[in-house]
Design goal:
23% of the residues lie in helices and 39% in strands. The chain has 269 residues and is of the alpha+beta class. The chain has a single domain, classed as Hypothetical protein, similar to alpha- acetolactate decarboxylase, domain 2 (60s Ribosomal Protein L30, Chain: A, 2-Layer Sandwich), CATH 3.30.1330. One of its GO terms (biological process) is acetoin biosynthetic process. It holds the Pfam family AAL_decarboxy.
C-alpha cells in the first residue's frame, strides 16, 4: 500500500513538473517577443555626438529602419549631409539641398539625429510670435530648464525660413563653421506645418547642442528644413519632459580616429 502511494506521489509530481515545463516553454517566447526593443518613453535618444559632427564625422551607420525604433519624432541629418532630417508621427522626411522633400528607404543611413517617443505632458498657445520671442515664452512656461524636453509646435506661418546643407563627398574638407554660412535657404509664406524640436540644458556640453533646436515640415510635406526664422499669429505648443538620455556612437573608423579638438564657432541660428 505504501509503495503504491509513493508511486502515485511520484507520478503526480512528474505530471505537475511536465505541465509547468510546458507552460514555461510556451510563455517564454511570448515574453521575449513582447520585450524586444520596447518604446522608451521619457527617453532622449541621440545618434552621434555634436562634437563628432562638428569635427567632420559626416558618415554614419544608423539606418532609417533603426531610427524608427528610437522615436516617432526627431531631427538631424542624413549621411554625407544629404538632406535635413525631420521625423513626425513616425515618418522620417528628408529635405535635400534643392529643397525637395522625400521619404528615404529603410536602408539609407543617418549621420546625426535626436529622437524621442512623444507623449505630451502639457501644452499652451502663443500669440504674435517669431523665433526669438518663442524661446522667451517657452522658457517662461517650462517647469525647469535643468531637464530635457521634446516639442511639437504647430501653426499657420505667415513666413517661414529654413536652412539645409549641401551634400558632401570624401575627403570632407569643410567643417560646419564653413558649411552653415553657405547653406541653402528655403523660404515660404502662408504655410501650415509643424516644428519638431528639442531642448538640452547647458550642462550637456559638447555631446549635443545646448538650448533649442527645431526642424520644420509643412502639412503638405513639400517644404521644410532647419528653422532659422518665422512669423505667425498663433502657435500651439506641446512639450514632453525627457528624464533619461541615451546616445549611440558611430561604429566607424572615421569616428574612432577623429580628433575632437575643434570647437563650434558659428553661433547664429
Amino acid at each position: 500500500m505504501g509503495d503504491k502511494k509513493n508511486k502515485n506521489c511520484v507520478w503526480n509530481f512528474m505530471v505537475c513538473f511536465g505541465v509547468v515545463t510546458l507552460l514555461i516553454c510556451c510563455v517564454r517566447p511570448n515574453k521575449m517577443v513582447g520585450s524586444s526593443d520596447p518604446k522608451k518613453e521619457n527617453t532622449f535618444y541621440q545618434y552621434n555626438i555634436w562634437w563628432g559632427f562638428v569635427n567632420k564625422v559626416f558618415e554614419g551607420d544608423l539606418t532609417v529602419k533603426e531610427l524608427k525604433t528610437k522615436g516617432d519624432i526627431g531631427l538631424g541629418s542624413y549621411s554625407k549631409l544629404d538632406g535635413e532630417l525631420v521625423m513626425l508621427d513616425g515618418v522620417p522626411y528628408r529635405i535635400r539641398e534643392d529643397g525637395v522633400v522625400d521619404v528615404p528607404l529603410d536602408d539609407e543611413l543617418i549621420v546625426y539625429v535626436d529622437a524621442a517617443f512623444f507623449e505630451p505632458e502639457d501644452s499652451f498657445k502663443l500669440q504674435s510670435t517669431n523665433f526669438d520671442s518663442l524661446i522667451v515664452k517657452i522658457n517662461s512656461q517650462l517647469p525647469s530648464l535643468n531637464q530635457f524636453y521634446s516639442f511639437k509646435v504647430k501653426g499657420n506661418f505667415s513666413y517661414m525660413k529654413c536652412g539645409g546643407l549641401y551634400r558632401q563627398e570624401k575627403p570632407f574638407e569643410k567643417g560646419l563653421d564653413e558649411l552653415i554660412p553657405q547653406r541653402p535657404v528655403f523660404e515660404r509664406v502662408n504655410v501650415k506645418g509643424t516644428m519638431v524640436g528639442f531642448y538640452c540644458p547647458e550642462f550637456i556640453g559638447n555631446i549635443n547642442v545646448a538650448g533649442y533646436h527645431f526642424h520644420f515640415i509643412s502639412d503638405d510635406k513639400t517644404f521644410g528644413g532647419h528653422v532659422m526664422e518665422f512669423n505667425t499669429n498663433e502657435l500651439d505648443v506641446e512639450y514632453d519632459p525627457l528624464l533619461e538620455y541615451h546616445f549611440t556612437l558611430p561604429d566607424s573608423k572615421d569616428f574612432l580616429n577623429v580628433s575632437l579638438e575643434k570647437e563650434f564657432q558659428y553661433q547664429k541660428k
